[in-house]
Amino acid sequence: MKMIPSQWETNRLTIKDMTQQEITTVQELYEQGSYIHQWDGGSLDKKYASRCFTEGDLPPGGTRAQFNIQVIRLKDKGNLAGLLTTYHGYPTPESFYINYLYMDKELHKKGLGREVVSELLSIVEQAEYREVRANVAIKNWPALRFWTGQGLNTIQGIYGDKEYGADKYADIELVKVF
Q1: pLDDT tens track for 38-88
Q2: What is the C-alpha separation between 90 and 39, in angstroms, rounded?
Q3: Residues 170, 98, 25, 76: is their CA dihedral positive or negative?
Q4: What is the distance between the alpha carbons of residues 175 and 65, in angstroms, rounded to a whole number?
Q5: Exposed (0-12), middle (13-18) or buried (19+): which is 158, by Cβ within 10 Å?
Q6: Nearest to 38 by CA among 172, 142, 147, 137
Q7: Of 50, 129, 135, 177, which one has the greatest count of Cβ atoms within 10 A?
Q8: Coil, strand or helix at 171
Q9: What values do phi and psi take at 57, rounded to 5?
Q10: What average pLDDT does this structure show over 109-131?
């Protein structure tokens, strides 16, 4: 199985594997995005960055070797701009899973997320994966618009509560086939 590079670039960004020294700042960025839990029913994971670095955020039967956590930095300033976690080979060996993508709230609406995903999709396709998947909370309309706009526009499945309600949650798994 081919892994995405440990470091890669876009026009304005550098993306590289997270180091142990970055755990605290990455955790702060992750917590900045905790508002998504109003849409997915989850709760804040106070050890998310550390857990991802040591154990990974794994699917059933997954291994740490197939998981990747990468930081996204602005090329011009070197500032932490975002976080990307991915899994290589789930649910099939030909599948590439985008677990989590978050860009600093101060950088929203600047096209940086699109820039990351565009290059990532190119890398994944060159690595000969057959599909890319992402799981999105149905109530997270901005993320649904974003991912479908990036070509992940086929619904693989809907998981979670069967009925709508303020305290009910479900996710939609979106797929782009190459």
Answers
A1: 999 999 999 999 999 999 999 999 999 999 999 999 999 999 999 999 999
A2: 24
A3: negative
A4: 23
A5: exposed
A6: 137
A7: 129
A8: strand
A9: -110, 90
A10: 97
Length of the chain: 178
Q: Reply yes or no: is the peptide bond before residue 59 cis, omega within 30 of 0.
A: no
Residue with tokens 């960055």: 49
> What's the pLDDT at 1?
72
Burial 36-75 (b: 16+ CB within 10 A, else e): beebbeeeebeebbeebbeebbebeebeeebbbbbbbbbe
The token pair at 45 is 């994971």
Note the pLDDT tens digit of each residue in 82-105. Answer: 999 999 999 999 999 999 999 999
| Cβ 89 vs Cβ 1: under 8 Å | yes
Token representation of residue 14: 């550098």
What are phi and psi for residue 103, nearest 5 degrees? -110, 140
Q: Would you state the structure tokens that stand for residue 6, as one six-digit string?
A: 């440990």
Domain ranges of the chain: 7-135
**In the chain, pLDDT over 90 holds for what percent of residues?**
96
Res. 20: pLDDT tops 90: yes
